[in-house]
Specification:
single chain, Dihydrodipicolinate Reductase, domain 2, 15 helices
């Protein structure tokens, strides 16, 4: 039987605590033994949830790294621009890492962490949770089996819902590259870039081109009568699709872990507390057309691989319905599907008289729901942490394994895509490990 592993949470935000919750579901496999976060109330929340002594609570990753190693690994859920600076001292201190994506905000940072992992022989897994969703894992297995031959084209599409766009990339903490250092492409669609690289695993990207802009969420697009704060001075709030009241009061739990972080000091904030917050200095109470956002709301990426294959990713923010779709065209067939449906179609050429193609539907819900018991991201969240624990215990890695080396190509495509968009040129992918 595998031994119980221990972990320290660094950056006690929503994503890190999602992974840490595996310790509640499978206490025989994982135990949370420490926390590092600059916010005192978050340290206290984690300490209370996992019965941590005060001496196992730290304000920074550096403070944690300065103490003798007392856990098997660290769950690094800090903001994008803190991933590498917090990870480097922890690697040197002897910790293996589970780190949120994107694991770096530029190529220099990326290679610095890759080199450190190699130098110290640490296991670092990147949280590309969609690899673990049954939908994508099943498709990858079909590719490995050669069901559609060699992949000559990958088409990925992510539609980011209007409420996710507003909370994360217009009003929220990923709305300015000058703050989080990540573009919207890397913050939101790093998953999709990784999936493209995974489907072409073993084949490096060669050239990248990209276009995008902030088409919608800017002052000149504001409807007549729009104020600066939804619940303070807006004349059109009752009919506005992006009203903070509609997004965060009428849907109180949808984005609560972001919107109400300023009320964390209140055990059970009331409706009046929340309305007052949105009327005050809460950034989520701002008009979406009059924020300080500087990231795109849509972007298209085209990639050429070393073997001549191509791929595209279209990321569109502000859609009515959130969705992710994937279409692989191979030399012997194709696979097409949408993760929300938990099903995909395999097609093969059928040249017989009165025929054109043969089609097989793979329904992942046929034996019951495969996602709900395994957390978000199509069932990938808990599967990822379970697989990392198996890896640390010396057991075979799954086909979805996300070691840092496996994440390089997807990150490179994203960094090159942003450079292409900003500089208006095709960018060559350069490997300089």
């Amino acid at each position: 039987m595998s031994r119980q592993l221990t972990a320290v949470v660094v950056g006690a935000g929503h994503r890190a605590l999602t992974y840490a919750a595996y310790a509640r579901e499978c206490p025989e496999a994982l135990k949370i033994v420490g926390v590092a976060d600059p916010v005192e109330r978050r340290r206290e929340q984690v300490a209370g949830a996992y019965d941590l002594p005060r001496e196992r609570c730290f304000t920074t990753a550096e403070e944690l790294a300065a103490r003798p190693k007392f856990a098997d690994f660290v769950i690094n859920g800090t903001m994008d621009h803190h991933h590498v600076p917090t990870s480097l001292p922890l690697i040197e201190a002897g910790y293996d890492l589970l780190v949120e994506k994107p694991f770096a905000t530029d190529e220099e940072e990326m290679w610095a962490l890759v080199r450190a992992a190699r130098r110290h022989n640490r296991k670092i897994a990147v949280c590309h949770v969609l690899r673990y969703a049954p939908f994508y894992a099943a498709i990858r297995q079909k590719v490995i089996e050669g069901v559609i031959g060699e992949i000559l084209n990958v088409q990925a599409v992510e539609h980011v819902s209007y409420h996710h766009m507003a909370v994360g990339f217009v009003r929220g903490k990923w709305n300015k590259k000058s703050y989080c250092k990540s573009s919207m492409l890397m913050s939101k669609s790093c998953h999709d870039l990784d999936l493209i690289a995974w489907m072409k695993s073993g084949v490096a990207p060669r050239r990248v081109s990209s276009f995008g802009s902030n088409f919608q969420f800017r002052p000149e697009k504001a409807p007549e009568g729009a104020g600066t704060r939804c619940l303070v001075d807006c004349l059109i709030e009752p009919e506005c699709l992006y009203s903070a009241r509609k997004h965060y009061i009428d849907h109180p739990k949808r984005w609560s872990f972001y919107v109400w972080d300023t009320l964390e000091h209140i055990a059970n904030p009331t409706l009046e507390d929340k309305i007052a917050s949105l009327k005050g200095d809460n950034p989520y109470g701002r008009c979406v057309w009059k924020c300080d956002n500087d990231v795109v709301d849509h972007q298209s990426v085209a990639v050429e691989f070393e073997d001549g294959a191509t791929a595209t990713l279209n990321m569109i923010g502000g859609s009515s319905k959130p969705s992710r779709s994937l279409h692989l065209i191979g030399t012997r067939g194709e696979i097409q599907g949408n993760i929300e449906d938990s099903r995909f179609v395999i097609r093969h050429i059928d040249p017989r008289p009165k025929c054109e193609y043969a089609e097989e539907v793979v329904d992942l819900t046929a034996g019951g729901d495969m996602t709900g018991a395994f957390g978000g991201h199509g069932g990938g969240d808990m599967r990822l942490i379970a697989d990392f624990l198996r890896d640390l215990n010396g057991e075979p890695r799954s086909l979805s394994s996300t070691r840092i080396e496996d994440s390089i190509n997807g990150h490179l495509m994203g960094f090159c895509a942003d450079r292409s968009m900003e500089e208006g040129r095709v960018v060559d992918v350069v490997f300089r490990a």
